[in-house]
Design goal:
The protein is built from five helices and ten strands, in the order βαβααββββαββββα. It is an alpha+beta fold. A hairpin with a 2-residue loop joins β3 and β4.
Length: 208
């Protein structure tokens, strides 16, 4: 469910109106996350690292209001909750999309996520929850510890779903780190909100 945002009283009204008609209103931030604790936690509990990282990411995103805002027919709306779709690698080295419904805890998400991956690998479809915008589009590039990322994009400045990418984990002294890219529509999200999201996501990774 969603509710319309009253633009007239919105503190970001001027920023929204400034960026909404840009041909390319998206900006991208890439930073390394410390996943040392998460990696250890997954090993100890037989959890898929990629699913656990996805779970804590979407959980953190739901706590940042701006990451739950979307533009629908030139109207800004706020969803009560967003979920995830992510690219998955098929056996023939093509990729398709997988829908991961949010669960109450990382253990349930791991179980359901493993089932979902098998289901959508068999479907091999790009047509996954395509009628929904209450999502975040995730990708994984586990072969590269990238330092920046650029998405393919249609020329549509009303496409407002955030896009996030996990990179290859690497060792940094005793720590394990992982690059993570966040791309958002600047009419809805500013750098301060992306910063809050990164900090919250990191705190969740540290606390497991």
């Amino acid at each position: 469910m969603f509710q319309e945002v009253d633009i007239s009283t919105w503190s970001r009204k001027a920023t929204y109106e400034f960026f909404r008609d840009y041909e390319d209103p998206f900006f991208n931030v890439t930073a390394n996350l410390d996943v040392t604790n998460l990696y250890r936690f997954c090993k100890q509990n037989d959890l898929a690292f990629s699913l656990a990282a996805l779970f804590f990411s979407i959980q953190a995103a739901n706590e940042i209001r701006e990451l739950r805002l979307r533009i629908i027919d030139d109207v800004v709306v706020e969803f009560g909750r967003v979920e995830a779709t992510q690219t998955i690698l098929n056996d023939d080295e093509t990729f398709s999309f997988c829908y991961f419904p949010l669960k109450d805890d990382v253990f349930e998400f791991d179980r359901s996520g493993k089932t979902a991956r098998e289901k959508y690998k068999a479907l091999k479809s790009f047509d996954v929850e395509t009628d929904r915008v209450d999502l975040i589009y995730y990708s994984a590039i586990p072969w590269i510890s990238f330092t920046s990322f650029k998405h393919a994009s249609r020329q549509n400045n009303r496409q407002s779903v955030p896009r996030m990418v996990f990179g290859r984990m690497f060792e940094d002294g005793p720590a394990r780190k992982m690059p993570f890219s966040v791309e958002v529509h600047h009419a809805l999200v500013d750098g301060v909100h992306v910063g809050k999201f990164y900090n919250l996501f990191q705190a969740k990774l540290d606390s497991v």
